[in-house]
Specification:
The protein contains 19 helices and 22 strands. By secondary structure, the chain is α/β, with parallel strands linked by helices. It is globular and about 70 Å long. The protein starts with 6 loop residues before the first strand and ends with a helix. Bound molecules: adenosine-5'-triphosphate (ATP) and magnesium ion.
Length: 512
């Protein structure tokens, strides 16, 4: 290990409690010059809380922070920023109706000598940072018009532009495409070589080999392990995180396929004139009862748009033919899709999935109101009885069902969303990136549940960018690339090599 003098930022004995929850019970962590420490742990372990304290979002109840060996305190985020601590938060923190450039330099805008914002300079500075991250968006574009992955890169651009000495990245890659992740890793390597100390939170272990020097593992608000990355095996890591032996990896049970539920023929969705002419182009597939159809593709391949089209979200522009249980049907609106027995758990949970100022119970039962109504009103008793099994099964970490969802950790919010959609009892369930931000053990629980739903006769369509997830879950895999369907594999034929080969654009396609 490096010498003590390499320690840039150190937290010692940090305690933090929220009403009903002890989030941190005396945690210490070090960020070293030119090194990256991965902070790992199950959902709700306290990782983001600790980072929020390092970044001045709120003070610790007890414990101290040290910068270059001197005790410091950060009464607010600007104080931490001024001291050279940069952070990319787990949840996006951008202002949707401001431009990319305005968001990157919010509060640090260059001014003209008349005291006005110097837009030419602002936009030029933003363009330089965007280039570093290979992000092809105009500095003047509005955040609201970007897709989630691009927004995540803008957040990263903002932190990188601060030239911080300590950079904290809390699940920075959750919405990034593989290529975007590679670019980010390049930037991380460059920052490390310039001596920046980094703390990196992730649930994707595969990323560690590319960026990680040291590992700190948390469980239930405490540090339970520290190691050089090179000295850890994956099994050891999972065991430390969970405090128990890791189970076998998940494999879907063989499907007992029933009748055809849904047939989609020649589904197309024209673009909005900016990018590709078609976001979805001539896609056809069938889905049977008891089947899980996995849709794999790189970010931007049109997978989300395909699900949205199925769910009636683009009814005015989409073309093609749907047949549900043998009858032609139009999904003219999401309401019509729901009435026909469809449910969609969307990708961007903050925007479409959760009502933040409501309780866990209310959020989880929002989509199954008919089952929790009593004489026309939501019965809290019914709500609780109905939703508790789901909350328990996914081990949602919350002091009670009355806790506001906004107070849950990111992964636990995601579990509540899934519970909410799984509880609707649809015929066809569409899941878009269902395990984003979910820890390794909870993932397996969710896979098992998807399997169970299929065995109960549901048809499921699962979109994921994680190939192992698609391969573990699906009876059939549909691969998309640049809006088109490039291959379809039965479970037995879906090897990683074949699926990946179909997901990448071929030379002729890109040259055209
Ligand atoms: N503002 C808050 N009010 C109440 N409880 C909170 C608040 N913020 C966090 N908590 C609780 O503190 C615990 C730790 O949460 P934290 O967000 O730090 O977990 P995490 O390790 O980042 O998890 P994830 O991997 O899901 O992001 C959780 O039980 C969470 O519900
Ligand atoms: Mg977190």
């Amino acid at each position: 290990m490096s010498a003590a003098t390499d320690i840039v930022l150190e937290a010692k004995g940090i305690m933090k409690s929220f009403p009903g929850v002890r989030a941190l019970g005396g945690v210490s962590i070090r960020a070293r010059r030119g090194r990256l420490v991965a902070l790992l742990g199950e959902n709700g372990a306290g990782k983001s809380t600790l980072m929020n304290i390092l970044a001045g979002v709120f003070p610790p109840d007890e414990g101290t922070l040290h910068l270059d060996g001197h005790a410091v305190s950060f009464p607010n985020p600007s104080a931490a920023q001024a001291a050279g601590i940069g952070i990319v938060f787990q949840e996006l923190n951008l202002i949707p109706h401001l431009s990319v450039a305005e968001n990157i330099f919010l509060g640090r805008e260059p001014h003209t000598r008349f005291g006005l914002i110097d837009y030419p300079r602002l936009n030029a500075a933003a363009a330089a940072v965007l280039k570093r991250l290979a992000l092809a968006v105009e500095p003047t574009a509005l955040i609201a018009d970007l897709r989630v992955g691009q927004q995540q890169l803008v957040e990263i651009a903002r932190a990188v532009s601060e030239e911080a000495r300590v950079l904290i990245l809390d699940e920075p890659t959750s919405s990034l495409s593989e290529h975007e992740v590679e670019v980010l890793f390049g930037v991380i390597a460059e920052l490390k070589s310039r001596g920046v100390a980094m703390i990196y939170i992730t649930h994707k272990f595969d990323e560690l080999a590319h960026v990680c020097d040291d590992v700190t593992i948390m469980r239930d608000g405490c540090v339970v392990g520290e190691s050089l990355y090179a000295d850890l095996t994956r099994d050891k890591l999972v065991q430390l995180m969970a405090g128990r032996e890791s189970k076998e990896t998940f494999q879907k049970s063989p499907a007992a396929l029933g009748d055809e539920l849904l047939r989609a023929e020649a589904i197309s969705l024209p673009g909005d004139g900016v990018g590709r002419p078609f976001l979805v182009e001539n896609v056809s597939f069938t889905l049977r009862r008891g089947e899980v159809l996995g849709v794999f593709g790189l970010v931007g391949a049109g997978r989300t748009e395909l699900l949205e089209t199925l769910f009636g979200l683009h009814a005015s522009r989409a073309t093609g033919q749907f047949t549900l249980e043998g009858k032609p049907i139009e999904f003219a609106s999401p309401a019509a899709a729901v009435a026909a027995g469809l449910a969609l758990a969307p990708e961007d949970r903050k925007r479409d999935g959760l009502v933040l100022p409501m309780s866990v119970a209310a959020n989880a039962s929002l989509a199954s109101l008919d089952r929790t109504l009593h004489a026309g009103f939501v019965s809290q008793a019914r709500e609780a009885a109905y939703i508790t099994p789901y909350i328990e099964r996914f081990r949602v970490k919350t002091p009670s069902l009355d806790q506001l969802i906004v107070n849950l950790s990111g992964g636990n919010q995601q579990k509540v969303i899934l519970a909410k959609w799984l509880a609707t009892g649809p015929k066809i369930l569409l899941l878009d990136e269902p395990t984003r931000g979910i820890d390794v053990n909870a993932k397996r629980e969710i896979y098992a549940f998807i399997d169970e739903l299929a065995r109960n006769g549901l048809g499921l369509i699962v979109v994921s960018s994680e190939l192992p997830e698609i391969l573990a879950l699906s009876d059939r895999v549909l691969v998309m690339c640049e809006g088109r369907q490039t291959a379809e594999f039965a479970r037995a034929d879906a090897t990683p090599e074949k699926v990946l080969a179909a997901a990448f654009p071929t030379k002729t396609a890109t040259a055209a």
